[in-house]
Amino acid sequence: MKRSRRTKIIATLGPASDSAEMMARLFEAGADTFRLNMSHLARDRLREKVGAIREIEARARRPIAILADLQGPKLRVGTFGGDAAMLKEGTRFVLDSNESAGDAKRVFLPHPEILGSLEEGHSVLVDDGKLRLRSRR
C-alpha cells in the first residue's frame, strides 16, 4: 500500500487507541507514524505497542515510523495519608526510601538511584517544575 502524498499523518497512541485493532484501523485510515508518549509508558507496554506496530507493518509491507516523545518518564512519589499534603515554603521536606504513606514532612521516592545521586544544593523539580526542592544533607 504505497502512499503518494508528501504530507505525513502522525497518530498519538493513548487509551482510546491502545489496541492492535485500533492501531491497524488508524494505519488503514492514513496514519504514517505512531507517536508514543514515553512519560506514561512502562517498558513492557512499549514492547507490546512496538510489536503490534511492526506486525501491522509486516502485513502492509510498508514501513511505519515510530515517534518516541522523549520528555522522559515522570517520576512518581509514593502515596500520602489523606491523598495530599500541603508544603510550606522554607520548611524541610524529605524524599526517602520509607514506603509508608507520606505527610507534610516526608514521602517515599521509589527511585533509589536518584536518592543516591543527590548532592547538597541539587534541585528536584516537582509537578512539572512548579515546585523546587533543594537537596541538603
Structural write-up:
The protein is α/β, with parallel strands linked by helices. The chain has two domains: 10-69; 81-134, no CATH class. Helix content is 24%, strand content 20%. The chain is built from three helices and seven strands, in the order E-H-E-H-E-E-E-H-E-E. The strands form three sheets. Strands 1-2-3 form a three-stranded parallel β-sheet, with helices on one face. Strand 2, helix 2 (43-60) and strand 3 (65-69) form a beta-alpha-beta unit. Helix 1 packs across helix 2. The longest helix has 18 residues, at 43-60. The protein is elongated. It starts with 9 loop residues before the first strand and ends with a strand.
Give a topology summary:
Elements (H helix, E strand, L loop, with lengths): L9 E3 L7 H9 L4 E5 L5 H18 L4 E5 L24 E3 L9 E3 L3 H6 L5 E4 L4 E4 L3
Parallel strand pairs: 1-2, 2-3, 4-5
Antiparallel strand pairs: 6-7
Structural class determined from secondary elements: alpha/beta
Helix content: 10-25%
Order of helices and strands: EHEHEEEHEE
The count of DSSP E runs of length 2 or more, i.e. the number of strands, is: 7
In one word, what is the shape?
A: elongated
* Major beta-sheet overview: 3 strands, parallel
User: What's the alpha carbon Rg, rounded to whole Å?
Assistant: 21 Å
Distance between the termini: 61 Å
Helix count, per DSSP?
3
Please list the strands of the largest sheet in the order they lie side by side: 1-2-3
